[in-house]
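pinging the channel bc i need a second pair of eyes. not urgent but kinda urgent?? the chain im working w is below, pasted from the shared doc
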Amino acid sequence: MNCLTGETDRLIHNDMLLCTAPNPASLQEPRRARTGTGILGTTFLIVNATLGAGLLNFPQAFDKAGGVAASCIIQLLLLVFITASLVILAKCSDITSTSTMQSMFAEFYGFRSLFLCAVCVAIYSFGCCLTFIIIIGDQFDRVLATYYGMNYCHTWYLSRPFVTAVACSIFILPLCFFKKLDVLSYASSIGCVTILYVVSLIVHKSVSKIDPITHPMKIWPDNAYQALQIIPIICFAYQSHMTAIPMYACMKDRCIGKFTVCAVASMIICYVAYTLVGIYGYATFGAGNVPSDILQGYTDKSTVLTLAIIFIAIKNFTTYPIVLYCGRDAVLNLLGMDANVTFKFRVLVTLIWYTLSLTIAILVPDISPVINLLGVLSAAFIFIFPGICLFRSTLLKDSELHLNKDRLLIIFAIFLVALGAFVSGVVFIEAVEDLNRTPEDPPLVSGFRSLKQSLCV
C-alpha cells in the first residue's frame, strides 16, 4: 500500500470503497503543524465578506417587497440553500484537494472549465473592488459636504480623487499583499464591529423617533410578484461563496464539520443584522418613503451619524483585500500560474489590480449599469456553481447511483442549478429595467449598492 499515490490516494476517501488500509498520505511523513484561522477567525472572515454588500439597501427592499413578514420568510428560506451551498463548496474542495473555485472546477470538468470559472471570478471580483472604492468615496464626500460645505470640491486636498486615493492607499493597499487569507481575519473582526455599530444606530434611530410616520410599514405584500422583489438583493447581500473555498483552505484545522459550524454561525449573524436593519429602517420612514441608502435618509448633523458613515468606509477597507485575493488567484490561473508564484510577481499583479480599480473608480464614479449586469454572476456563485459541483462529485463517487442518499443529492443538485437559473433571470430582468429608469426613480438594487455620482458633479 505504500506505493499508492495520486488518484489512488483520493479513492481511499470514496464512500463506495470499503478498505481497512491506512491512508498512504499518513505513511509518507509526519503531518506538519498547520497555521491558519480557527473557528472564530473563519467566522469573522465569512461575516466580513458577506455583511455590507446590501445592508443599507435592505430597508427599501423590505418596502419594495410589500411587507416585513414576506421579506423575512423569503430571506430565511433562501438562507437554507445559501448555507448549504457554502458547505457543498467546502466539501467539493476536500474531494479535489483544491483551494480555489477555479481549481476545483478544473479537477471536475477539465482545463476549459478552469478558464471559464477564473474569468467569472476575476470579472466579478474586479466589479466588487470598483464598488468598494466608489462607496468609500461616497462616504468621504458626504462627511466633507456636511462639515466643510460644498466648497470642499474646489480644494485639491479635500477633493474626492485625492481623498479616496490617499485613504485607499493607506488602509487598503498594505492588506493586499498577503499570500493567505488567514492574516485578514484580524482586519475582518474590525469590519464586523463597524457593521455592529451601524446596525445599532439604525435600531436606535427607529426606537427614539418621536414623530409618527405618515405611512406605516406593511406586513404582507399585495401579490406574490411583489414579494419576489427582495430576491435580487438577498443574492447580493449573502454572496460570499466566491471566497468560501479560500477561507476553508486557510483554516488551521481543515475539517468540514468545523467549517459547517462557521458557515451556519456566520449566516445566522448576517440574517439577524440584515433583518434588524430591514425592519427598523423600514419602520423609521414608512411605506413608500424609504431611501435606497438608509443612511442618506438621516439629515441630522450628529457625531453618531458621522461615525456610522465613516464606519461604512472602514468596512469596505477590510473587505476589499478579501475580494482582491480571489481575483488575483483567478488572474494567476489564467496566466498558467498558481498562488506559489514569487513575491515580486504577486506584488506586481496586486499593484496593477489596485491601480486599475482605483483609477476607474475615480474617473467613472457611476458604473451602476455595468455592476447591475455583473450582478447576475452572484446568483451563479451561490446556486449554480455549487449545484454543478455537487452533481459531478456525486456521480464520481457513485456513477450508478446505488445509494438512496446519492440519488437525493443528485436531485438537490439539479434543484440548486434550477433555482440559480431562476434567480439569475430575475436579477438580469431587474438590471435591464434599471437601465431604463429615470434618475428620479432610483433602482432598488444596483450590483451591490446604489451607486451615485459624486456630490461635486
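so The longest helix spans residues 111-147. and The radius of gyration is 23 Å. — does that match what u expected or am i reading it wrong
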